[in-house]
Amino acid sequence: MRVAIAGAGAVGRSIAGELLENGHEVLLIDKTPGAISVEQVPQAEWLLADACEITSLDEAALQRCNVVIAATGDDKVNLVVSLLAKTEYAVPRVVARVNHPKNEWLFNESWGIDVAVSTPRLMSALVEEAVSVGDLVRLLRFSQGDANLVELTLPPESALSGTRVGDVQWPEDTALVTIIRGSRVLTPGPEDSLEPGDELLFVAAQSREEQLEELLSERREPEGESR
């Protein structure tokens, strides 16, 4: 997979390093000469250019990229890069960094963005995820389709504890994608059971989040009592 990253600062270089380790081709683009640190990510391609200029993106052959990541520290730049990548070069997947939470509402499909990553929101979500049991935590927002990646740690008293995945009547527009059980990452199948303490990751429509949380957090009735 070929990935272009606009912004060769600490964030861009860190992303590039991870992608290169996973066997992908990476092009780093930055207009600041001081940001061109080839020795820090020598396996990447480098381009000294303004990623907001069509001529620069032509030189970068953006039409050959599977993914473009707008990772600069300027939200305006990230929006422009995303829009150009999607509308002028038909890049299949565009990911954009949100630097200031107040601008998050702009980072959607109208600007060509498939996934918006807000560092402050993500850090807040990770803190919540670390201390919350039985509460739904939104980890990531997908711009297209109004869907989110959400997590819930199944509480011991949940009515679904011990229930097979295939027997659960999940809300519409939700999909259980992963079960994290201790150090194991499980791809859920119909015969797998839900266990107390499981971290459940879903892709869910925002309108279904409350319904999903209620389903997972519903308490098991004490023995001897009926509904």
Q: How would the global form be characterised?
A: elongated
Spatial order of the strands forming the largest sheet: 3-2-1-4-5-6-7-8-11-9-10
Tally of alpha and pi helices:
5
What class, by secondary structure content?
A: alpha/beta
In the predicted model, the low-confidence regions spanning at least 5 consecutive residues are 123-131
Roughly how many Å apart are the termini?
54 Å
- What is the residue-averaged pLDDT? 86
Q: Secondary-structure element sequence?
A: EHEEHEHEEHEEEEEH
What fraction, in percent, of the residue positions are helical? 10-25%
Query: Mind summarizing the main beta sheet?
Result: 11 strands, mixed
Strand content: 25-35%
Radius of gyration: 21 Å
Quick one: how many beta strands?
A: 11
Oligomer: single chain
Structure description:
- The structure is a single chain.
- The protein is an alpha/beta fold and 227 residues long.
- The chain has helices at 10-21, 54-59, 75-87, 119-131, 209-217; strands at residues 2-6, 25-30, 45-48, 67-70, 93-98, 115-118, 137-142, 147-153, 174-181, 184-186, 199-205.
- The longest helix has 13 residues, at 75-87.
- It starts with a strand and ends in a 10-residue tail after the last helix.
